[in-house]
């Protein structure tokens, strides 16, 4: 599965109910691919190519880690502790990803 397909899957598995009242930008710096960002605004989710001017949180990882987390094979917190995933900005928002997207 390509990185673009992983993000399409994420977008399809978006939980709109969990995003009511939220206004967030999750940026994903994929070290061996491109940068993408997801804009979550009051129950909607839009995927964009490239960097955002002011992301709420930026998650930095390689494509293998991304695919593992989205498929449910890799636990995001374990990837973070192992140094496979780094976060910049509001790190607590990264923990919301599991609520906002049905992983696995």
Automatic annotation (TrEMBL):
InterPro entries in alphabetical order: SCP2_sterol-bd_dom, SCP2_sterol-bd_dom_sf
Short name of one Pfam family: SCP2
Domain annotation SCP2: ranges: 8-101
Superkingdom of the source species: Bacteria
Gene3D superfamilies referenced in this protein's UniProt entry, alphabetically: SCP2 sterol-binding domain
Protein name: SCP2 sterol-binding domain-containing protein
Upper taxonomic lineage: Bacteria, Pseudomonadati, Pseudomonadota, Gammaproteobacteria, Pseudomonadales
């Amino acid at each position: 599965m390509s990185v673009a397909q992983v993000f399409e899957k994420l977008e399809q598995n978006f939980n709109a109910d969990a995003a009511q009242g939220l206004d967030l930008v999750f940026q994903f710096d994929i070290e061996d691919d491109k940068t993408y960002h997801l804009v979550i605004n009051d129950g909607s989710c839009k995927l964009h190519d490239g960097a955002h001017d002011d992301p709420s949180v930026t998650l930095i990882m390689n494509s293998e880690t991304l695919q593992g987390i989205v498929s449910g094979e890799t636990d995001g917190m374990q990837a973070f502790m192992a140094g496979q995933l780094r976060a910049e900005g509001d790190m607590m928002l990264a923990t919301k990803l599991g609520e906002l997207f049905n992983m696995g």
